Amino acid sequence: MDKYGKFCWTKKLGDMHLSGKNITLCGKPMLGNNYSDIRKDVPMCKECESQANREIVRDAVKEAEMTVEQAVTKFHWCCAAIVKEAYINNAKALNYCGPYAKLGLTFDSIALVKAQVPYVLDNMTHWRGDLAKKVRKYLKEVTHALRNY
């Protein structure tokens, strides 16, 4: 593996390529013998290198999508939506989730929010509809954003 986390593939007389599965990142098939262990001085294929750089940037953007403050704000929005559905619209599917969401509205601490998200998610399993899908998606994003805290 190289610095990009991909496997190197070098033909006897060609450039070094980076491979994904059974094909290089630039689209060339991986046929024949691999000389990457023997020929270390071979230049990298420009297309493979630029594709690997794009993947690194895309992954970095995904990881940095949400700050902690945004995660807490998104959690509060989800709790407000659940409380509205549970108490104002009287949704029976949220009988157990409502109190957890109501309590979650009072939390500002990252540790408390991180601990409360699983309870809210687990108790809203029977809630259906577009709003439910959106709230579930947001809560999973919050869980993902707070996993390192």
Question: What would you note in describing this structure?
Answer:
- By secondary structure, the protein is mainly alpha-helical.
- The protein folds into two domains: 7-63, no CATH class; 68-145, no CATH class.
- It is 51% helix and 5% strand.
- The chain has a two-stranded antiparallel sheet.
- A hairpin with a 5-residue loop joins strand 1 and strand 2 (16-19).
- The longest helix is centred in the middle third of the chain and has 21 residues, at 68-88.
Helix content, binned percent: 40-55%
Tally of domains: 2
How can the largest sheet be summarized? 2 strands, antiparallel
- Count of beta strands: 2
Which runs of at least 5 residues are low in confidence (pLDDT < 50)?
none
Large-scale geometry: elongated
Which strands sit side by side, in order, in the main sheet?
A: 1-2
Order of helices and strands: EEHHHHH
Q: What is the average per-residue confidence, as pLDDT, rounded to a whole number?
A: 83
C-alpha end-to-end distance: 30 Å
Beta-strand percent range: 5-15%
Structural class: mainly alpha
Count of helical stretches: 5
Supply Rg.
Answer: 24 Å
